[in-house]
User: What shape does this take?
Amino acid sequence: MDFRYLGNSGLKISEITYGNWLTHGSQVENDVAKECVRAALDVGISTFDTADVYANTKAETVLGEALAGERRESLEIFTKVYWPTGPGGKNDTGLSRKHIMESINGSLQRLQTDYVDLYQAHRFDTETPLEETMTAFADVVRQGKALYIGVSEWTADQIREGHRLAQELNIQLISSQPQYNMLWRVIEDEVVPACEELGISQIVWSPIAQGVLTGKYQPGQPPPAGSRATDEKGGADFVKRFLRDDVLTRVERLRPIADEAGLTMAQLAVAWVLQNPNVAAALVGASRPEQVHENVKAAGVKLEPEVMTAIDEALGDVVERDPGKTEENAPQTRVA
Assistant: This one.
């Protein structure tokens, strides 16, 4: 496993980071989820990412149980706050001081830890003053409940303003967690340059485009049984944007490129995001331990310039690059 600094901090994280969105507490049984975490630890992954909203807090509980007994100082545990949790009451959502303070306490209890290494704003809250949000985050840091602050799916302008306030409050905002993969490159024109300037790294989710870049979805064919595209608990909604025949046909052109590089298509996809110097880690999930063992083989892989060019040529115009998609896909009002 290779390790990278997160932003301009002194914190090192594993460049393959284990994430439990859509798996722990919902898609797979708890014993299998724990086996996946054990597999991650066995291959050298030390960084684990979750969120209070995943399976409505159950994912944090499963991760906490899976990591119990491990040396805490050897781990980096990340979680997030924003989306509705619990019964979904009027203050059970957003980035208000009330919700942040209550959420960090709940997350720590479920994760069985005194602190998280990174506490992330899961989306931008348009209905709470950013000063209130950042002040609450600063207090969480000063109380020793989080070491660093991050954001997820914020625009470049939002990141700039959040970073300015973090500096005023003497806390470190060091990470951005956006969707990023060969097919979805909307952060490249605005978010990445802003983050490079500010000393912020990307921890990217969906590096294999919810499984599309593995090549398991074929043009003109129904999704394989048991795949994410058939998961009505949430996975199907996220993957459907890529399940167009023109996209799937282009993805098939990646197969010989992966073969030539001696990688599976999934490994090629994970390795591709790690070529971006502003990316500190690729988030990978797993519903089976063997998936962890396969994905981790992308760590430390260097793709030559001609391979990167071949990938661009194979995918052509099906790649989404519009930076406006970040704001377009964000909640415009607080979700209740």
